[in-house]
């Protein structure tokens, strides 16, 4: 299934930094707010620091970044990069793929994944307590390799590879 006719998947541009930051913070709240004691005061859910972060990422080309855009604006994004660590398990990493809740299930996630990675081998980290994401990645060829870590307020994260 592809994104709806009104959805466009395109490379991110510098002028998308504010929109991406808003989607990033909002999707974090929608997905992980249930795991955090007080998401209203937790800095991980603040938009403002993410705006500068995304300006820098886009200016410096840190990631291959794509956005999903519908008539209301940016509703999702994905960011991938080549891994440079000698011990990397795959040559590329999907660093981020986030959609607003209302855009989930539209095919936009798959289209974003295809845009930044195609079918190439890659790794990613996902919250252990995110069954929807695990299901999505499984459908797209990723499996857990047994590695675990933690990230910010998420507690345990697991590495997926394909």
Give a concise summary.
The chain is built from four helices and seven strands. The chain is α+β, with helices and mostly antiparallel strands and 162 residues long.
Walk me through the structure.
There is one protein chain. By secondary structure, this protein is α+β, with helices and mostly antiparallel strands. The chain has helices at residues 17-32, 48-60, 108-117, 131-139; strands at 8-11, 64-70, 73-82, 92-99, 123-127, 143-150, 156-161. A hairpin with a 2-residue loop joins strand 2 (64-70) and strand 3 (73-82). A four-stranded antiparallel beta sheet has the order 1-2-3-4, with helices on both faces. Strands 5-7-6 form a three-stranded antiparallel beta sheet. The relative contact order is 0.18. Helices cover 30% and strands 30% of the residues. The protein has four helices and seven strands; from the N terminus they run βααβββαβαββ. The radius of gyration is 15 Å and the shape is globular. The longest helix is centred in the first third of the chain and has 16 residues, at 17-32.
């Amino acid at each position: 299934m592809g994104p709806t006719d009104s959805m466009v998947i395109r490379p991110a541009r510098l002028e998308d930094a504010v929109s991406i930051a808003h989607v990033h913070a909002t999707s974090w709240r929608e997905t992980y707010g249930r795991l955090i004691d007080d998401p209203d005061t937790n800095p991980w859910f603040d938009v403002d620091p993410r705006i500068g972060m995304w300006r820098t990422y886009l200016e410096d080309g840190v990631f291959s970044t794509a956005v999903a855009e519908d008539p209301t604006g940016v509703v999702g994004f994905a960011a991938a990069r080549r891994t440079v660590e000698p011990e990397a398990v795959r040559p590329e990493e999907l660093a981020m793929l986030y959609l607003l809740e209302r855009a989930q299930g539209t095919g936009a996630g798959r289209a974003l994944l295809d845009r930044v990675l195609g079918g190439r081998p890659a790794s990613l980290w996902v919250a252990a307590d995110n069954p929807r994401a695990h299901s999505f990645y499984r459908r797209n060829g990723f499996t857990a390799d047994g590695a675990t870590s933690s990230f910010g307020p998420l507690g345990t994260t697991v590495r997926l590879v394909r």
